Amino acid sequence: MSQTERLPRNRTYLMCPPEHFTVEYAINPWMDTTVPVDAALAVKQWDLLRTTLVDLGHTVHVLAPVAGLPDMVYAANGAFSVDGTVYGARFRYPQRADEAAAHRDFYETSQWSYQAAEHVNEGEGDFAYLPEAHGGLILAGYGFRTDSKAHAEAQEMLGRPVVSLRLVDPAFYHLDTALAALDDHNVTYYPDAFSVSSQRVLAQLFPDAVLADRADAEAFGLNLVSDGRHVVLNTEATAMAEKVRAAGYHPVPVELTELKRGGGSVKCAVAELRP
User: Which domain of life does this protein belong to (predicted)?
Assistant: First the structure.
C-alpha cells in the first residue's frame, strides 16, 4: 500500500457499558463459562475505550444496559446504519434476542428511519460499509450468525450494493472478527477466514488491502475501529498494530482483556452511526 497521508474523519458511535456483563453461556468458541469475568475491570476497560474515541474527536452515544442481557456490551451487533436508515438486528441465539428491541428504541427515539429485519442478522457484526469503495459498498458476512437472505434484504432497505462473503472458520464467526474497514475505501482482512471464492472477490475488490494472518485474527487484531488514520485495536494485537503502522495508519492500543472473554474486542463494542 502506498504511503499516502492518512486523514481522520470524525465519526459518531454507539456503545453500551458492561454493567451486566458475564459469561453465563457459550455461543461462540471464545466463551468459557468456567472462568469468571472481573466485572469492575470490564467496566474500567470499556470506559477507557470510550474515552479514547472521544479524545480522538469522535462523538459517542451511550445505550443504557439492560439487566439479563450480558452481551449488550457488544453494541455493534444490534443494528447497521447507512445514510440515516437503520437495518435492525434479528439475533441467531435466543439469549441475545431481546437486545434488538433495546437498539430499536434508541434509534426510534433518536428519529432514525428504522427498518425491522425479517431474516436473521447480527447487525454491524456481519456488515461493513465503505462509502468511497466502488461508489459505496456494503460487505456482508454469512455462515455462522447471519442468514445470507439478510444480505438481499439489507440491500433493499439501505439502497447500497451488498457483497456477500462466506465465513468458514467458527473461530471467526462474525465478519468483524475477520475483516475491518481501515478507511472509507480500503480494508484489512484474514483471508483464510473466508471461502476460496470469497477470497477471490476480496482480492479483486481490494488489491491494496492489508492482509492479516491467523495470529493477528486470534488476537482479535481485526476487531478494530478506524477513523481513517487512527486505528483503535486491543493491546494483544501487537503484530497487527505494526501492519497497520507500516500501511501508514496510526495504531492506538487499548486493553480489553475482559471483553475478549465473551468473544469480542474493540469493534464488537462500538457501532458506527451513519446519519
Answer: Bacteria
